[in-house]
Specification:
By secondary structure, the chain is mainly β. The protein has one helix and five strands.
Length: 73
């Protein structure tokens, strides 16, 4: 799935992406580290992988990002 980097905190290695419909979805350090990235800038196009979870605090309707990496063409 593709998204656009929205926020990124280099200290916590976490942030948010915007899906193509404008929905913000948070990612944690584990998802960032899984992609092997060193830095992420707002506006960069990224590829994400998600897994379904039980909806709850800090999740987007039962979706959790497990990988964030740069979109390559």
């Amino acid at each position: 799935m593709q998204a656009t980097a929205y926020t990124y905190d280099p200290e916590s290695r976490s942030g948010q992406v915007l899906l193509d419909d404008g929905t913000p979805v948070p990612f944690d350090a584990a998802a960032f580290d899984a992609g092997g990235l060193r830095l992420l800038r707002p506006g960069q196009r990224v590829r994400i992988e998600t897994e379904d979870t039980e909806a709850g605090a800090g999740t987007d309707a039962g979706r959790r990002i497990t990988l964030v990496t740069l979109q390559t063409f």
